Amino acid sequence: MKTFGLVGWSGSGKTTLLVRLLPELISRGLSVSTMKHTHHHFDIDKPGKDSYEHRAAGAKEVMVISSRRWALMHELRGQPEPDMEDMIQQMTPVDLLLIEGFKSHRHAKLEVYRPSVGKPLLCASDPTVVAVASDEAIPGLDVPRLDLDDVAAVADFIVDQCGLAAAAEGADADDAA
């Protein structure tokens, strides 16, 4: 399973780009999953629901299953945040796992950058940033700059960077048959 990251400051458009990339990559015949890191406390459950009550009562894990999806909630209960590599091992293998966030991890990343956000480029101090997608020209950039609005070109870059061209081309050949 290939992994590739999208990083950038809050408000730069990481999620918007990722959501636009998914159908583009999937239309090329690739199976794609995502992983998102957040620094905020979050909850996918609601007070009053049975699964919430199970967790509130102390269950370490609660699995919710329906005919459309399932979700596993794992309570850390004071343990440290798990390592990204350990979490990747929990994922069902796919062609490509797109990772939003996890800035400090050592996987290859695309920086989503908007000068209007007013923050410095991450690629200046992070050698794992292999390209920047921006809505403006960036003078003196040491990595390729991609047009943030050209989703097909960004997808092309990711496919090439991850060595997935053969998988995508195989799907094209299957479609032609």
Question: Span from first to last CA?
Answer: 26 Å
Our estimate of the beta-strand percent is 15-25%
The CATH architecture is 3-Layer(aba) Sandwich
Radius of gyration: 19 Å
Strand order of the largest sheet: 2-5-1-6-7-8
Per the CATH scheme, the topology name is Rossmann fold
Number of alpha- plus pi-helical segments: 5
Name the overall outline.
globular
Q: What is the mean predicted local confidence, pLDDT?
A: 90
Counting DSSP E segments of at least 2 residues, the number of strands comes to 8
Task: Let me know the largest β-sheet.
Answer: 6 strands, parallel
Unreliable residue runs = none
* Structural class category: alpha/beta
Order of helices and strands: EHEHEEHEEEEHH
User: How many distinct folded domains?
Assistant: 1
Kindly describe this structure.
With 177 residues, this protein is α/β, with parallel strands linked by helices. It has a single domain (2-43, 83-176), classed as P-loop containing nucleotide triphosphate hydrolases (Rossmann fold, 3-Layer(aba) Sandwich). It has five helices and eight strands. The protein has a six-stranded parallel sheet, with helices on one face. A hairpin with a 4-residue loop joins strand 3 and strand 4 (70-74). The longest helix is centred in the N-terminal third of the chain and has 14 residues, at 14-27.
